[in-house]
Here is the input.
Amino acid sequence: MGKELTAKLLPTLQKMPWPQNPHVTDLGRRAYEIAIDTIDSYRDDPKVLAAALRALQSCDSRPYAMAGVAYALIAAAREADGTYASEGLEAALRWLEKAQETEPDVVDINVVEAFIYLHEGRLDDVRLVLDYLQAQDPYSYYVQVAEFAYWLARQDLEQAQSWFDSASEAARTVPQRLRLLSQMGDGYAQLGQWDKALVKYEEAAHFDAENHWLWHQISQIHWQQQNYEEAERFNQRALKLRDFPEGRQMAAALKEKKGSDTGMLGRLFGR
Here is the structure.
């Protein structure tokens, strides 16, 4: 993940054929939207990014293809601990600049710049970009998602909730709305508001029951609340859907916790 995946991806991107039409097109926009949605579903499977890149190759607009590659590089740069490899973000900006060379004023392309700055921790620069884009198109779904992410990064949950509502209304698909729910849950969890986080995760999981990551998040909330039986139940549900490192780590922690408690009871009752 992160630095390692970026290092593998960059030379491959240079060799891939990309559209040469220097202008935006309706077909290019549709391919771009499909690719962005695919990238947003990425967690740890590189095949997801590969599918998005293939979609970008199929469009007839170089600016949309280049911006989509930039967005894919942001996703690829994410490390297991939630930080982002600087190499990936720097590469994302270079690819985005290729898109902006011939189409400098497309809001849904330029919003990628805000996401790059966001993951670099440059929140003041994010604000400048978003203010500019809001003046151009305040109804852009991608701008509203970026505003939501910005206020989450600021840990201003009141503003984040407001932009969550706006982005949810602007969302065109169920998966888009479910991702927003999960991200709102993340925001509450980061501030230790476990009950509110649990509500968001459970709502998302109700409509996306095959998403192992949502059940893992629910398991983590129960762990934080020291409700270990429920944590184990949802951990098992997550691992049944997919074998993944974070799930195995939770299973090991629960096993250790159960063994520790059994040991204490054994000493207490002389067993």
The mean pLDDT is 94.
